[in-house]
């Protein structure tokens, strides 16, 4: 039924999953050649030899829908044969996935399996176009077919993906192009109605624009989406309005003061005024977040280098339980202040600071300068190094090296002058 299909899209995060994999040019990873497999026993030797002769990319056209979906998912894990390059192998993997998806689409109508087949076909067509330029237009053609489908639930997928497919080009967009992308996001909702799917697609545009220099456009779009969601009859969308408003608030922080509030791990009310005149890194993180943990050594290194110059770190922890937080603090020897919240419904992603700033991905690292204004919304890795050097000067070792270089140059200059005097 159509309602079942719509429910599947909501459940699977269909639009978001596609936009993450397609619009952002996610890399494709094939299974490594010679990947280890479980050794066969003597009794299974005959079966193993028979399977070895089978083509792992032969589409089981007579198989069940479940078997076809398993085939599609497994195709990406098939290792390329010895001597075959990635482009040549892509020319075999993705067409096989597309063929299997089309078998499902021919036999299924408005079902969960139909939705999954659409997803896989679109992904395969897009990735194939990257390896085989002569097929690059096939994804766009399929999207147009989806848009022209009589079923609204299918048409909205096509319209949403048409919006998402070229988002990566916005990295170099000018203000007019960024504004057009925001307008197109609103038009999607105007043309197809406000739903979980259209709202998700439009919010992805806002999120992407927020990572470009056009944060003002992103703020405007996010606020418009929040306005629409607040008026919706859909409780989920109404609930999303607050986070969308928070996203706009966060993206609009550049050059402005950042409000930081909450209770610290030692039970005290946090006061940003205590950090007046200092450079502060506000880091949204959790113990279960791999990239968050991976950034800790860089944060510690910079704290050691710039701590005496006025650099401080304030963590906004998004763990759901205190035990996990405390265990991580001890294991990682984290000594800086952390704002925490363990109350049910106000912990994890629902932590007050997280909802206030619409945090939808971590780590999120925001840097505040000595005047209290935000100077970076992505102060991680090399960006943190760069900003700290701009605000506080070179780190000690680099400063010492530069001072030594000046001394050496002065010594060389004096030697040159002495040589000149000797010649006279």
CATH names the topology of the largest domain as Serine Threonine Protein Phosphatase 5, Tetratricopeptide repeat
Radius of gyration (Å): 27 Å
CATH class categorisation of the largest domain: Mainly Alpha
Give the helix level as a range of percent.
Answer: 55-70%
Question: Which secondary-structure class do the elements indicate?
Answer: alpha/beta
How many domains make up the 3D coordinates? 2
Spatial arrangement of strands, main beta sheet = 1-4-3-2-5-6
Taking all residues together, what is the mean pLDDT? 84
Could you tell me the strand content as a percent range?
A: 5-15%
Distance between the termini: 101 Å
Q: Count the helices. How many?
A: 17
Assigned CATH architecture of the largest domain: Alpha Horseshoe
The count of β-strands is 6
Query: Could you list the spans in which at least 5 consecutive residues all have pLDDT below 50?
Result: 1-27, 30-52
Please give the largest β-sheet. 6 strands, mixed
N-to-C order of helices and strands: HHHHHHHHHHHHEEHEHEHEEHH
Shape: globular
């Amino acid at each position: 039924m159509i309602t079942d299909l719509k429910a599947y899209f909501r459940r699977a995060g269909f639009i978001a999953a596609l936009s993450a994999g397609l619009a952002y040019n996610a890399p494709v990873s094939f299974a490594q050649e010679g990947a280890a497999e479980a050794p066969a026993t003597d009794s299974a030797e005959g079966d193993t030899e028979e399977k070895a002769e089978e083509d792992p990319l032969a589409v089981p056209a007579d198989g069940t829908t479940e078997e076809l979906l398993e085939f599609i998912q497994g195709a990406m894990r098939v290792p390329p044969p010895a001597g075959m390059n990635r482009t040549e192998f892509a020319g075999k993997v993705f067409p096989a996935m597309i063929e299997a998806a089309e078998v499902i689409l021919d036999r299924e109508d408005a079902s969960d399996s139909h939705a999954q087949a659409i997803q896989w076909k679109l992904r395969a067509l897009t990735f194939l176009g990257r390896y085989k330029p002569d097929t690059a237009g096939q994804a766009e053609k399929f999207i147009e077919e989806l848009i022209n489908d009589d079923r609204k639930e299918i048409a909205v997928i096509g319209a949403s993906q048409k919006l998402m497919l070229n988002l990566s080009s916005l990295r170099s967009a000018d203000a007019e192009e960024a504004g057009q992308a925001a307008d197109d996001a609103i038009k999607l909702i105007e043309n197809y109605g406000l739903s979980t799917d259209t709202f998700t697609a439009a919010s992805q545009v806002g999120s992407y624009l927020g990572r470009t220099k056009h944060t003002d456009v992103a703020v405007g779009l996010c606020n418009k989406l929040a306005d629409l969601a607040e008026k919706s009859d859909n409780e989920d969308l109404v609930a999303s309005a607050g986070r969308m408003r928070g996203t706009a608030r966060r993206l609009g922080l550049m050059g402005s003061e950042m409000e930081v509030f909450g209770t610290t791990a030692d039970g005290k009310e946090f006061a940003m005024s205590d950090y007046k005149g200092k450079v502060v890194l506000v880091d949204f993180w959790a113990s279960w977040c791999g990239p968050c943990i991976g950034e800790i050594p860089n944060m510690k290194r910079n704290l050691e280098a710039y701590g005496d110059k006025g650099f401080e770190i304030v963590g906004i922890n998004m763990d759901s339980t205190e035990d996990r937080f405390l265990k991580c603090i001890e294991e990682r020897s984290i000594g800086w202040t952390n704002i925490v919240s363990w109350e049910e419904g106000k912990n994890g992603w629902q932590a007050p600071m997280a909802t206030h700033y619409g945090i939808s991905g971590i780590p999120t690292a925001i840097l505040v300068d000595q005047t209290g204004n935000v100077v970076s919304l992505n102060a991680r890795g090399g960006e943190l190094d760069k900003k700290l050097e701009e605000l506080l000067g070179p780190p000690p070792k680099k400063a010492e090296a530069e001072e030594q270089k000046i001394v050496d140059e002065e010594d060389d200059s004096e030697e040159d002058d002495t040589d000149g005097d000797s010649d006279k």
